[in-house]
TrEMBL record:
KW RNA-binding (keyword) present: no
Pfam family, one: NIF
Top-level division of the source organism's lineage: Eukaryota
InterPro entries, sorted: FCP1_dom (IPR004274), HAD-like_sf (IPR036412), HAD-SF_hydro_IIID (IPR011943), HAD_sf (IPR023214), Ubiquitin-like_dom (IPR000626), Ubiquitin-like_domsf (IPR029071), UBLCP1 (IPR051658)
Catalytic activity: O-phospho-L-threonyl-[protein] + H2O = L-threonyl-[protein] + phosphate; O-phospho-L-seryl-[protein] + H2O = L-seryl-[protein] + phosphate
Biased segments, Polar residues type: 1-12, 23-32
Protein name: protein-serine/threonine phosphatase
UniProt enzyme class: hydrolase
PROSITE patterns: FCP1 (PS50969), UBIQUITIN_2 (PS50053)
Organism of this sequence: Exidia glandulosa HHB12029
Required cofactor(s): Mg(2+)
Length: 401
C-alpha cells in the first residue's frame, strides 16, 4: 500500500473493538450466484460497455462448499458485522475491517486470533479456528476517505525482485487454480467488472492479452518526463501489434491506475491514432487481486491477472485460444499454461535496448501459434527457441532469394 494512500489523523487515541463470531455455510463457484454486477468502470468514456457477466458465463470451475464466518463487533460505540470466508486470509479480514472502521491495514492489531502472537497476513481464517474466540481490534482510524485496499491509486513501481514460474511446477499450479479463495475472488471480480469495448471483437480470432510496463514500454523515463514516448517504446512495437492483429483481438491489461494507463496508451499512439491495428479493450489494476506465493521458504503477497475474468465476459475465449504476454510470470500465476514471459525492457536509451528484437521474435511466435488448434497443447516456456528457429529459417530464405 502506498505511504500516501491513507494517512492517520492521530496516533494517540487507539480504539478497541470486541469481536464475537458466528458461522454459516454456503456454496461458492463461478456458476452458482445470480447477483447482478453494479459497479461502473472508470473507462466508460471510451465506448458502450458489455453487460456485466453472470456466473453462468464461466466454465470449468468446481463448485466448492465454503464456510463463512460472521463477525459481530463494537467499535466507537456502534455495532458492526462482517462476513469472511474460511478460505480468506488475515489480509482479507483486515481489508474488511478497514472498510467498516477506517482503520488502515498497517495500523490494525487483531488480538486473540493466535495465542501469544500476531497472525501473519497470509494465514487462512480456517487455520485460526476463530469460532467462539473473543477478539479485539486495536487501531486508530484514518482521516481520509476510506478506500478498498485493492482500489488504491498509484501503486509503487513494480520491480522484478520477486518472480516465479508456475508453468514449471504443475502441482503448485493446480493448487492455485483449485484454491477456494481464488475461485471465489475470480467469481466476485468477474461479477463486478464492466468491460468497455473500444473496438468490436471479431469472429474467429484468438485473444492476445498484453502487459505494458517493461513489456512494451520502458515506463520510468516516460512517466517522469525524461524522454518522449517514441523513445521509451520497445523497438518494433507497432509492427508487432499490426502483425498480431491479423489473427488476434488485442487486450491491454496493466497493473496501474487508469489515469496512468490512459496516458501511456495515448502517448504511445496505440489508441486514437491511425495505426493498422485496434485495441479491443483495456483493463487496469481494478480486476486484479492479491494472492500469496512462496519462494525460498519466504511468503510474498502479489497481484495476479486471472484470465477467467475475461473468459467469463467473452466465452468464445478460453485456454485453447488465449495467450498472455508479460514480463512478470507471477502475473499469470492462475493461468500458467497461457503465459508467455518476455524479458523486461529497461534502459531504453542504451544501444543494447535500442537493438532489442524481443517483439520481433514474439510476432514470429504468435504467427506460428495462430495455426495451432489448441494453445494448451503448446509449452510457451520454449517460445523463444521456436521463434529463433523461425527467424533463422526466414533469414536463410531471404539470403537465398
Amino acid at each position: 500500500m502506498p505511504d500516501d494512500a491513507i494517512q492517520s489523523t492521530s496516533a494517540t487515541h487507539e480504539t478497541r473493538a470486541e469481536v464475537t463470531i458466528a458461522s454459516r455455510e454456503t456454496t461458492v463457484g463461478l456458476e452458482t450466484s445470480t447477483e447482478e454486477a453494479a459497479l461502473p468502470s472508470e473507462t466508460q468514456q471510451f465506448a458502450p460497455s458489455t453487460p456485466a457477466a453472470s456466473d453462468d458465463d464461466a466454465s470449468g470451475a468446481h463448485l466448492v462448499a465454503e464456510t463463512w464466518i460472521t463477525l459481530k463487533f463494537a467499535w466507537q460505540g456502534k455495532d458492526y458485522t462482517l462476513e469472511i470466508a474460511e478460505s480468506d486470509c488475515v489480509y482479507d479480514l483486515k481489508g474488511a475491517l478497514q472498510r467498516l472502521t477506517n482503520v488502515p491495514l498497517e495500523r490494525q492489531k487483531i488480538l486473540g486470533l493466535v495465542k501469544g502472537k500476531v497472525a501473519g497476513d497470509d494465514v487462512r481464517i480456517r487455520d485460526l479456528q476463530p469460532i467462539g474466540k473473543k477478539l479485539t481490534l486495536i487501531g486508530t482510524p484514518a482521516g481520509k476517505e476510506l478506500k478498498d485496499p485493492d482500489e488504491l491509486d498509484d501503486l509503487p513501481e513494480v520491480l522484478n525482485d520477486f518472480d516465479f514460474d508456475l508453468a514449471t511446477n504443475p502441482v503448485a499450479a493446480q493448487a492455485y487454480i483449485n484454491d477456494q479463495r481464488n475461485i471465489r475472488k475470480i467469481k466476485e471480480t468477474a461479477r463486478k467488472l464492466q468491460i468497455n469495448v473500444m473496438n468490436p471483437l471479431r469472429e474467429g480470432k484468438k485473444l492476445l492479452v498484453l502487459d505494458i510496463d517493461y513489456t512494451i514500454l520502458d515506463t520510468k523515463p516516460l512517466t517522469s518526463g525524461l524522454l518522449p514516448a517514441q523513445e521509451c517504446a520497445r523497438p518494433g512495437l507497432h509492427e508487432f501489434l499490426t502483425l498480431a492483429y491479423r489473427d488476434y483481438d488485442i487486450v491491454i491489461w496493466s497493473q496501474t491506475s487508469w489515469s496512468w494507463l490512459e496516458l501511456k496508451l495515448h502517448e504511445l499512439g496505440m489508441v486514437g491514432g491511425t495505426q493498422l491495428y485496434k485495441i479491443a479493450f483495456v483493463l487496469d489494476k481494478g480486476p486484479m487481486f492479491s494472492v500469496y506465493s512462496t519462494r525460498d521458504g519466504k511468503t510474498y503477497k502479489h497481484a495476479v491477472k486471472p484470465l477467467r475474468v475475461i473468459w467469463t465476459h467473452f466465452p468464445q475465449f478460453n485456454a485453447k485460444n488465449t495467450i498472455h504476454i508479460d514480463d512478470l510470470s507471477r502475473n499469470f500465476a492462475l493461468n500458467p499454461g497461457e503465459g508467455l514471459k518476455i524479458s523486461p525492457f529497461r534502459d531504453c536509451h542504451t544501444a543494447q535496448s535500442m537493438a532489442d528484437k524481443e517483439l520481433k521474435l514474439c510476432g514470429l511466435y504468435l504467427d506460428f501459434l495462430s495455426n495451432v488448434a489448441d494453445f494448451s497443447t503448446v509449452d510457451h516456456t520454449k517460445w523463444r527457441t521456436v521463434a529463433l528457429a523461425l527467424n533463422a529459417v526466414a533469414n536463410r530464405r531471404q539470403t537465398s532469394s
